[in-house]
């Protein structure tokens, strides 16, 4: 087999970088390690935890993702880590040791309603993805994946996947009461079969604005001071609450001349009847209060 070549890929989460190989590393499994004790089955992960800035190590499909503490910047260390990972993988040593056949943990999935009547949040007892993924249509999905399989249901319109949940937006051709059990069972059975979520056609540095159209997101380090403050407020105060409802909000830009903040709504927030009220009475009011004199309005590019 050809040697492993590692490609460094930034993600929408500034703390996480993916080190992607040109070969599969693990199949039908994904691993998450928070410390050296949890990483006993992976010698490479244990090595990585000797680095003081490593917070979490993820191993899945063809990549190793690392979440760092804010004591270094990725620009200072990512090349060295890439070389370390590549050297280990090419040494022939096991990436993850298995002690015989381990007992499979049953997958459970439960459904949660959201403020958007057309969206339902399906929560699993396992991590589904390191980076959030959005699928606007079946054309955004890969064959033989969970995301592609979900589009076999004709009423499914859009998918948003983050951490351990899938937020599904449907067309108005049926009610959730009629289809929730069927969708929940399909997700559980597909995850138990070992199928992956699948990658979206959109890059991690871009966000879907409309069907077939993506917007490149600005990098935090390139933002002006007001924009950085807006991002910090969104991350600390807004995103956790929005995620609980199966959605996400992403900063797209700020115009100092007119005080306009532009955001993109994802998941259950996209197309939600109450999203306009949330923008006006919640996010806009908070930003005006916390950044006085600088914010006039908040608009959603896909609202």
Description of the structure:
This protein has 6 helices and 15 strands. A hairpin with a 2-residue loop joins strand 11 (206-210) and strand 12. The chain is of the alpha+beta class and 303 residues long. The strands form 4 sheets. A 5-stranded antiparallel β-sheet has the order 1-2-5-4-3, covered by helices on one side. Strands 6-7-10-9-8 form a 5-stranded antiparallel β-sheet, covered by helices on one side. Strands 13-14-15 form a 3-stranded mixed β-sheet. It is 27% helix and 28% strand.
Short description, anyone?
Helix content is 27%, strand content 28%.
Chart the SSEs and their pairings:
Layout: E1 6-10, E2 16-21, E3 30-33, H1 43-49, E4 54-60, E5 63-68, H2 74-89, E6 109-113, E7 119-124, E8 133-135, H3 146-150, E9 156-162, E10 165-170, H4 176-192, E11 206-210, E12 213-216, H5 225-244, E13 247-255, E14 260-267, H6 275-290, E15 297-300
Parallel strand pairs: 14-15
Antiparallel strand pairs: 1-2, 2-5, 3-4, 4-5, 6-7, 7-10, 8-9, 9-10, 11-12, 13-14
